[in-house]
Protein: RGS domain-containing protein
Organism: Papilio xuthus
Amino acid sequence: MEKCFVACGCDDQEGVTKGDLDRFTDKIENVLNDEKGRRLFRNFMFTTKMKDGRRALDFLEHIERLLGYSEDAESTSYRNYLRDFDRLIDEAERIEELDFATMERLAIARDSENKDEMEAVLKLLKVEAIKALRREYSAFRRHFISNN
């Protein structure tokens, strides 16, 4: 088993291995689709004071929670889903990289209360949230490649 990469800043027993770092510095999806990678990325943004990046990552995680929602439109849970969707809209307003057209699509989908339309917009938003993390990922990548 590979040893923990000391500069990772992790505090779990497994640690982040050099193999993990190789994957994480290959492409952003590898970081975001791995629990340790996401935690390492968040810790990096925290220590480097990248507030916009942390906000975009929180936004991405909120989108993923909404995409994982599976209730029908008649249930109390669906009303909770709509309230959660409203909170996402509030968060979206604080993500500078989202353009007016994307925000408008989000509002139109919410007004429709059609879960299929809302999910389609959430999928688009997920791509936009990942794009919003490009600058932070580049800094993350440079940091860990130079320390590796």
